[in-house]
Specification:
By secondary structure, the protein is mainly β. The chain has a domain at 1-269: Pectate Lyase C-like. Helices cover 5% and strands 43% of the residues. It is built from three helices and 48 strands. The protein has a 29-stranded parallel β-sheet that branches. The longest helix is centred in the N-terminal third of the chain and has 14 residues, at 66-79. The chain is elongated.
């Protein structure tokens, strides 16, 4: 019997509360406040604890344990919350009736591997079942210590979590191996207060062609019929945008299976737009991204290419990307981080329960605002050949008439190895239709294109940036914005001797002051005569 504190009995066998706490002590340390600034994530009290093997699961890698898992979840729901412990073993789960997460639930894996039983697709689901609103799908869930395993050679693919209207969910210390195909690993549709931390994501198998090169591993999405990897009931969709999502201290890596190397997934992003709405309060912090798939955007006009890049977050607000390391060792071309505006979106009047929803070309495109990109390291993003379009490591692509990218801070980042012999240098930063852009305190080595700022931009500051071993014809800094200041930067040439350090367009007013430019054929290039309102003085030209 399993006993809750009221001594009511349920069918199964007991496991001691002390045993579960000992097994998860490292994960529990620190309490519900995951880290400073992160949402508080609640989890279940240990009133009821179920050992899945003692409850009837085989864990032999062959027997479908979905029904046992669902009985355990029913018991947790009846008790008002509790813990499911999954001991060591291999458990095929997620056949016809997917395990549905319940409120106040903790799932603890102890060297347990979950396999996909039945067809490819969702494994765990959170469903509103006719209800609406944040948390109507599930509340207060903590999942830790699980390994999700697919098989690329056998085309066994998994979406481990399809979450609709989930609130207060923590997924930590899990491994996701050979699970992502051309769709997603985690669907977040109309969710809030989600934290994914200390997880490893291994491999991406694009099995549906070029249109899916931008597929997100962790997808930030909205509540619309057809958007989730597993259909919810009629009447469950309300158009809510996901918010307060954190991905922290995770690793995204490639994997080699039977001699075939699969790239790492595109870690975090979104691609759906809703008129008048944005995804908000998104954090991607302390993660490692190694060798994502090649995915250059061939067309960045209007509504194309906004969902390209390892991390891509169009139509988003209040975003922090910090303390990450992005590494490209395979000579593939992809943006590391991109923010874009979109001009085609679901209309405000479209019924969220209708499929497909009604879309239109917006009179005022949806841009982004309040973005911080700081203290990241970007290594080796170079074009492999002359036929692959050069992309930007960080790309800000707004659109006019309301789709501008606003209030962006790019600071303390390190860019290394963006130059490749006999190929154009990869730009570290490029901005279009961006206003309120501050680039400060960044460091570049073997990277010759620091920033390209389009004439459509305004209110731009580039300061205290240090770049060494600059080569090529230049310019290293190309600014044509309205209202700009380029101050206190140190740019040092490499070999062969480069051309231009800073080039100015016709934008005004502007100030280029107190920069140290060493070893350039043409340190500062500007219109002649200098546009009225532009000041160039106090620069050290060595």
């Amino acid at each position: 019997m399993i006993m809750n504190r009221d001594h009511a009995s349920l069918p199964a066998h007991p496991i001691s509360r002390r045993r579960v706490l000992a097994a998860t002590a490292a994960a529990v340390t620190g309490g519900a406040a995951v880290a400073t600034g992160l949402p508080t994530v609640a989890w279940a009290a240990d009133d009821l604890v179920i050992d899945l093997r003692e409850y009837g699961a085989k864990g032999d890698g062959v027997t479908d344990d979905t029904a046992v898992f669902n009985r355990a979840l029913d018991a947790i729901e009846e008790a008002g919350g509790g813990t499911i412990v999954i001991p060591a073993g291999r458990y095929p789960v997620g056949n016809a009736e997917r395990p549905r997460l319940r409120d106040n639930l903790k799932i603890v894996g102890q060297d347990a591997t979950l396999l996909k039983a039945g067809p490819n697709g969702a494994l765990f689901v959170a469903l509103s079942r006719g209800r609406t609103g944040y948390g109507s799908g599930v509340r207060n869930v903590r999942i830790s210590g699980l390994r999700f395993l697919g098989s690329y050679p056998n085309n066994r693919l998994v979406c481990p979590f399809a979450l609709h209207h989930a609130s207060n969910v923590l997924i930590e210390d899990c491994v996701f191996e050979q699970v992502q195909g051309s769709r997603h690993c985690v669907d977040l549709n109309g969710c809030e207060d989600i934290v994914i931390r200390n997880c490893r994501w291994l491999g991406y198998n694009n099995n549906e062609g070029a249109a899916y090169l931008g597929a997100e591993c962790i997808q930030v999405d909205y509540s619309y019929n057809g958007a989730l990897s597993y259909n919810d009931s009629a009447g469950s969709h309300d158009g809510l945008m996901s918010r307060r999502i954190t991905v922290q201290d995770c690793e995204f890596r490639p994997i080699t299976v039977n001699g075939v190397e699969y790239p790492c997934p595109n870690p975090f992003g979104s691609h759906g737009l809703k008129e008048g709405a944005r995804f908000s309060d998104l954090r991607f912090v302390g993660n490692l991204v190694v060798d994502p798939i090649q995915g250059p955007s061939l067309d960045d006009s209007t509504d194309t290419g906004m969902a390209r890049g390892a991390v891509h977050l169009p139509a988003s607000s209040r975003v922090l990307i910090a303390d990450n390391r992005f590494v490209q060792t395979k000579g593939r071309m992809i943006r590391a981080v991109s923010f874009g505006a979109g001009a085609v979106a679901i209309t405000e009047e479209s019924d969220p329960n209708a499929s497909p929803p009604i879309k239109k070309v917006l009179d005022e495109p949806l841009g982004c605002n309040d973005i911080t990109i700081r203290d990241n390291r970007f290594e080796g993003f170079v074009s492999p050949d002359d036929d692959t379009p050069i992309q930007q490591v960080i790309f800000l692509r707004g659109l006019p008439n309301g789709g501008e990218i606003r209030d962006v801070r790019i600071s303390g980042n390190t860019f290394v190895g963006l130059d490749l012999a006999d190929h154009p240098s990869t730009p570290a930063i490029e901005a279009r239709h961006t206003t309120g852009l501050t680039i400060t305190g960044n460091t570049l080595e073997r990277a010759s294109k620091i920033a390209i700022i389009d004439p459509s931009c305004s209110d731009v500051i580039i300061e205290a940036t240090k770049a060494t071993k600059i080569t090529g014809s230049g310019p290293a800094v190309d600014v044509a914005a309205e209202r700009y200041r380029i101050e206190g930067n140190t740019l040092t040439a490499g070999s062969p001797k480069p051309g231009c350090a800073i080039e100015l367009g016709d934008g005004t007013p502007g100030r280029v002051v107190r920069n140290r430019l060493t070893g350039f054929t043409e340190p500062i290039r500007h219109p002649d005569p200098l546009p009225r309102g532009v000041t160039v003085r106090g620069n050290h030209l060595g």
